[in-house]
Design a protein that fits this description.
The protein is mainly alpha-helical. Among the domains are: about 140 residues, Tetratricopeptide repeat domain (Serine Threonine Protein Phosphatase 5, Tetratricopeptide repeat); about 130 residues, Serine Threonine Protein Phosphatase 5, Tetratricopeptide repeat (Alpha Horseshoe). It is built from 35 helices and no strands.
């Protein structure tokens, strides 16, 4: 949120410097000009007889065309009779004749305020102050003069001096609302938000409709992340200044922060149609919408400006990456699909979106994205790997074999491709080439635990359990903190004759300790406990496996058998009913297929 502007209200009605006072100013006149017609004209102006004063001045100027005082007096007459354009020319003529003519500079500044040309007015006041620091405050009771002085100091970024000037104006007139607002602005610039808030609230007691005070109260509450309090002030500010883009933008942000996205949408549509959003505000709102989960609306807000669109594309991609890493896959998909039209996506974009669709189990879209990534970046082996994994996940190993073999023609040095090829052959029941490919992967990367796990399981499934256990020992040595080698080692060794119950238990307990959320580890540990006669803990492990994976059929079967032996016919019958209503235990290929996320995460 950005701070609102200064308050000029109650300033534009200032009277012009008194005519008689002008004649006493050292820089405004000479002794010759201080008498006769000019003094008479000044008296007529003081008496509100501007017509007679102007006649006197016109006669005088015919003979004294270069009299700065006469032009200044004439400007006052013209201003007081509503001839503002003519008055401006007269004041400018006086200043041209005498650039240090303080009274003319102040009068021109006042005239510019009256015609709502505030920035030019400030220039005149600052020029007057440069020649006479007391130009605006020579009258110690002039609260408007001190307020103007404060505004000039604000424009010069001399905020402490501005604060003192506004405070002096309020000492003279405590009901001067404009000075309250301007004091709030000075305090806000000095980062004194608490006192600034009080100044704005004081202004609103005097002038409840002041849009600057309303919007800045909303701004301060917003900075304090108290958006519930910010909204009513910003709504009132927007009602009083419906075309003020900065107020509408602050209100839209407050609506978004408080979950009122429908109202935010209406405001953003209005802002978009007006084409008045500056780039900074557009980018701020688009980023906020993205952050709060409304990627489509963020894109609508940013797309009308090419630089804003490019910025949002980068922000959106990074947010999608974070969401994907945190398992927020639907959110990542929504963001990526929303931003893809902001620029031509690169291979990295397609790879990430393909990964999201892979996890969301949308093989068609995942395949399309990975193929596009390969098209854009054919040298990156990871794209091939992920594309082939889409086929493996859905039990179509032949196209996966084709993808891996194609990739290996140009990148035979990539161990992951050999691992993927080994997996594909394994699922295609081509065990010998599977083992060859997996051994090749290990030769290229002897520290990849995943390859050892796959090879160990493959050896086990082909009846070579002792070789499998040796491979799994290597896996444990390579990655002692990964749970799967312990799981497979314990499971395989439990099925061997003369198996060491102590070793089986050690391995399975280690697997559970490393990953308590893996249901199969609890299930196998339950079986091992049952073999040792530890029925109560076995039941606990079976129950835990079902909490994690309710459709784990073999756990229901084991529980049914345990309860039957315990004489608990009711629970035995119930567990058997659950068993009959669920699918059988995963076959080895299903278990290995779960390694795809390990390939991604390790």
């Amino acid at each position: 949120m950005d701070a609102a502007r200064r308050s000029w209200k109650e300033i534009a009605g200032l009277i012009f410097c008194g005519a008689l006072a002008l004649l006493a100013s050292p820089s405004s006149t000479t002794p010759a000009e201080s008498s006769g017609p000019l003094e008479l004209a000044a008296q007529k102006i003081e008496a509100k007889d501007c017509a007679q004063a102007q006649k006197i001045l016109d006669d005088f100027l015919r003979q004294n065309l270069n009299s700065s005082v006469a032009h200044n007096l004439r400007g006052i007459c013209e201003a007081q009779t509503g001839q503002l354009a003519a008055a401006r020319k007269s004041f400018e003529k006086a200043i041209k004749l005498d650039p240090k003519y303080v009274s003319a500079l102040v009068n021109l500044g006042n005239l510019l305020l009256a015609t709502h040309n505030e920035s030019e007015a400030l220039k005149q006041f600052e020029a007057a102050l440069a020649h006479d620091p007391d130009a605006l405050t020579r009258d110690p009771t002039s609260y408007t003069g001190f307020n103007l002085l404060g505004l000039c100091r604000m424009d010069q970024h001399r905020y402490s001096e501005a604060q003192r000037a506004f405070e002096r104006a309020l000492q003279i007139n405590s009901k001067f609302a404009a000075a309250c607002v301007n004091l709030g602005n000075a305090l806000l610039a000095l980062k004194c938000e608490g006192p600034a808030l009080q100044a704005y609230l004081s202004a609103l007691k005097l002038r409840p409709e002041d849009s600057i005070a309303l919007s800045n109260v909303g701004l301060i509450y917003g900075r304090q992340e108290n958006f519930g309090l910010a909204v009513p002030y910003l709504e009132k500010a927007h009602q009083h200044a419906p075309r003020a883009v900065n107020i509408a933008a602050m209100l839209a942000e407050a609506y978004i922060r408080t979950g009122r996205k429908g109202e935010a949408k209406a405001l953003l549509d209005q802002l978009a149609q007006s084409h008045e959003l500056d780039r900074s505000t557009r980018e701020s709102l688009a980023s906020l919408l993205l952050e709060t989960g409304d990627a489509s609306r963020a894109v609508e807000t940013a797309k009308q400006d090419s630089e804003s669109a490019e910025l949002l594309y980068g922000l959106g991609y990074r947010q999608a990456e974070t969401d994907f890493e945190q398992g927020k896959n639907a959110e990542a998909r929504e963001t990526l699909e929303a931003i893809r039209g902001l620029r031509t996506p690169d291979a990295r974009f397609h790879d990430l979106l393909g990964s999201v669709y892979y996890v969301l189990d949308d093989p068609k879209k995942a395949s399309d994205e990975f193929q596009e990534a390969i098209h854009l970046q054919p040298a990156d082996s990871e794209h091939y790997f992920k594309l082939a994994m889409v086929f493996l996940k859905h039990r179509t190993p032949e196209p996966a074999i084709y993808v891996f073999e194609t990739a290996l023609q140009s990148r035979p040095d990539v161990p992951n491709l050999w691992l993927g090829l080994g997996l594909s052959y394994y699922f295609a029941h081509k065990y010998d080439p599977a083992m060859d490919a997996l051994n090749k992967a290990i030769s290229l990367d002897p520290n990849d635990v995943t390859t050892y796990i796959v090879l160990g399981d493959l050896l086990s499934q082909t009846g070579r359990s002792k070789e499998a256990m040796e491979v799994l020992r290597k896996a444990i040595a390579v990655a002692p903190s990964v749970y799967l080698p312990y799981y497979y080692y314990g499971k395989i060794s439990a099925g061997l004759p003369n198996a060491s119950a102590e070793e089986v238990m050690k391995m399975l307990r280690k697997s559970v300790a490393l990953n308590p959320s893996y249901a199969q580890s609890h299930f196998e540990l339950g079986k091992a406990l049952l073999q040792l006669g530890n029925t109560s803990e076995a039941i606990e492990q079976f129950q835990e496996s079902l909490k994690l994976e309710p459709k784990l059929a073999d756990a229901h079967y084991q529980l049914a058998q345990v309860y039957r032996k315990m004489g608990d016919a009711v629970r035995a019958k119930e567990e058997m009913r659950f068993f009959q209503g669920t699918h059988p235990t995963m076959d080895p290929e299903d278990a290995i297929l779960r390694l795809d996320f390990h390939i991604e995460k390790q």
